[in-house]
Design brief:
The protein is α/β, with parallel strands linked by helices. The chain has one domain: 6-pyruvoyl tetrahydropterin synthase/QueD (Tetrahydropterin Synthase, Chain A, 2-Layer Sandwich). 26% of the residues lie in helices and 39% in strands. Strands 4-3-1-2-5-6 form a 6-stranded mixed sheet. The longest helix has 15 residues, at 98-112. The radius of gyration is 16 Å and the shape is elongated. The structure holds zinc ion. Residues 15, 24, 28, 30, 128 line the site of zinc ion (ZN).
Length: 140
């Protein structure tokens, strides 16, 4: 029977949206939360996936992002500052919206799936605040 499991991850991260017309163009941060949601058939142990193995799909990425500044490669103003002062940062080639962060995490999780998994869908929800989230779903 097709079943869904979910695990939550949290990290603190700075960012800004340089092209935004409002407050989001300023340097600020969020207490991000991501839900990794996996669906598929149960294995012989009655699991979609062991929660420990699920954690291993994404924990290294969460650690990379935690207390970093997620910087759009086109944002030269901030990127130069981060490099000059050796501040923790991760450079990406997209505007650092929750939508794009969800895409990035979904691609990461799909790339880390073990051989022989029985999943049919990977879904990622990224919360920037407790009231707003972006969701990406990929069939595999
Ligand atoms: Zn923001």
């Amino acid at each position: 029977m097709r079943t869904t499991i979910s695990k939550q991850f949290r990290w603190e991260m700075g960012h800004r949206l340089p092209l935004h017309k409002g407050l989001c163009r300023n340097i600020h941060g969020h207490s991000y939360e991501a839900h990794v949601i996996l669906s598929g058939e149960l294995d012989e142990q009655g699991m979609v996936m062991d929660y420990f193995d699920m954690k291993m799909l994404i924990q290294s990425k969460v650690d990379e992002l935690d207390h970093a500044f997620l910087c759009d490669a086109s944002d030269a103003v901030v990127l130069d500052f981060l490099k000059e002062h050796s501040l923790k940062h991760v450079i990406v080639n997209f505007p650092t919206t929750a939508e794009n962060i969800a895409h990035m995490l979904c691609e990461h999780v799909v790339s880390k799936l073990p051989h022989g998994h029985r999943l049919d869908t990977v879904k990622i929800r990224v919360f920037e605040t407790e009231k707003t989230y972006a969701e990406v779903e990929q069939s595999i």
